[in-house]
Predict the structure.
Amino acid sequence: MKDKKNITRLRELCLNKDSFPKAVLDWIEKENFWNIWVPQKHGGLQMSLVEGLGQLKSLAKIDGSLGWTVTLCSGANFFIGNLQPAVVQEIFGVNASQICFGGSGGVFGTAEKQGDSYIISGRWHYATGADYLSHFTLNAKIMKNGTALINEDGSPMIRSFVLPKNKVQIIENWNTMGLKATVTHSFDVKEVMVNEKFSFLYNQVLLDYPIFKIPFSVFADLTLWVNYIGMAQHFLEEATAILPNEQLNKLEDTIEQADTYISGFAREIEATIANQLVCVEDSVVKIHSRAADSVQAITKSIIEVYPLLGVGASRENNQINQIFRDYFTATQHHIFTR
């Protein structure tokens, strides 16, 4: 990752692409980046939180779409911790480096219970990496005899499912100014029968590894936060060739502060897990609030710098223009909006 020639090549391959060329996808697979969090036992890299966040930030600094796609897809492969052992073996038992999960966090469809199976139907939106996925993940309301089932607290009963790519229809509707190569399309599922063993719950962890002891909301906050930092670092790098340092000091300080915060949180979480403790709710809220504030501060700093960069920064074939478009497309993700 520190090879400047490789970084330059990857940036050239990704610049203004609507999807990743085969060379980029082959490189991701070769490096096994879909499986950053997957245990070595199941063919993954089994990175610690600190290592994985550093890797994702480096990828986002190379290219926004590259970092975002690997983050969301490796984050979906993180659900290996929620799957039944037999399913893990079935999916990851052969050629794990080719396994790439992805899907939607929304509840856009239904799963009709029939014996030990479900019939799933619906259209789910914003499946990052849709064209690259081997399996799609989705959330669905559980139905029986046409009636929505509810939990004891009165909330709708929802389960998550993993389906092979040949069971879904991709709807090519990702038409944004940035993060184009993430191909974050929608997908349809039409009355597909799925055995219940391919369902799971976010808060029910079945693999006993440190990384899976992290609350998923915290995991999502940290892994996306580093993408904003990585893209901002790349923006700063390109801007440094255009503007004097004094005009970039605020942006540089804001990025360094964000980096310090996230590094501190990651080390703290690792220490907590090592001591067999849990991440308490106060910490969950604190991390989310800090991440949201940090991203807003980075956004403000980039906005202040961009008008100073000249017409060249507005040309679509300019690297800094793509970074700008990627970053501000990423800000539309709901995770850190107030």
Observations:
- The chain has a mean pLDDT of 95.
